[in-house]
User: Which sequence fits this backbone?
């Protein structure tokens, strides 16, 4: 670790250095938005770019880490927004509407999903393991009695994938002309709400190996 710079306060360890880099990144994002770079962050911390590169290999990696660091606050806002919605389909639809609004307005989590930063790797991260953890956390925080409504753990895995793939699709192409919030809710109810309702409304069927073999033949 460098023995100078850091505004005269050298971090005690790598964890503190990482936390200070992320804090400085948020400060620069507040100031410069999507044009934030590692050079900006290094100047804010009074260190060289190489010092920041030691912890984050690129600007995209740094912005991704900053977004991940802010996910907890987003989840807290979503929990408050969804409080009192007990119907599974309504909660999931409102959850997706809320996340899309948050991603549009959030300076940290939503930054990478704006047009000037959007890329195939970034879009792919929506359905990554980190994305699944985020979506499952949101689902678990909902005021829905999932088990009481007949949803199994396997069903919740499906709900999580429905949420993530819907978000991914809406980020890539939100549609034109744009929809109002109420129009988006109506659309998502047809698209997602029906699927959520069908999970417990349809008879349970297990995949049968003989049926799969017959299809292959």
Assistant:
């Amino acid at each position: 670790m460098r023995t100078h710079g850091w505004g005269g306060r050298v971090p005690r360890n790598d964890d503190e250095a990482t936390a200070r880099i992320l804090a400085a990144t948020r400060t620069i994002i507040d100031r410069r938005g999507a044009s934030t770079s590692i050079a900006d962050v290094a100047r804010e911390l009074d260190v060289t770019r190489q010092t920041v590169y030691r912890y984050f290999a690129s600007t995209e990696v740094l912005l991704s880490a900053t977004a991940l660091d802010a996910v907890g606050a987003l989840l807290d806002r979503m929990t408050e927004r969804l409080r009192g919605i007990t119907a599974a389909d309504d909660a999931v639809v409102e959850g997706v509407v809320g996340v899309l609004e948050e991603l549009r307005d959030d300076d940290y989590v939503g930054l990478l999903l704006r047009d000037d930063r959007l890329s195939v790797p970034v879009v792919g991260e929506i359905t990554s393991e980190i994305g699944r953890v985020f979506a499952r956390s949101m689902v678990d925080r909902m005021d829905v009695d999932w088990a009481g409504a007949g949803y199994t753990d396997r069903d919740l895995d499906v709900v999580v994938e429905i949420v993530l793939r819907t978000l991914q699709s809406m980020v890539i192409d939100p549609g034109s002309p744009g929809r109002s919030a109420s129009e988006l809710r109506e659309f998502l109810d047809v698209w997602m709400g029906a699927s959520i309702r069908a999970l417990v409304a349809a008879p349970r069927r297990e995949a049968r190996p003989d049926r799969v073999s017959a299809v292959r033949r």
In short: The two ends are 63 Å apart (CA to CA). Residues 2 and 173 are 45 Å apart (CA to CA). DSSP finds eleven helices and no strands in the chain. The mean pLDDT is 86.
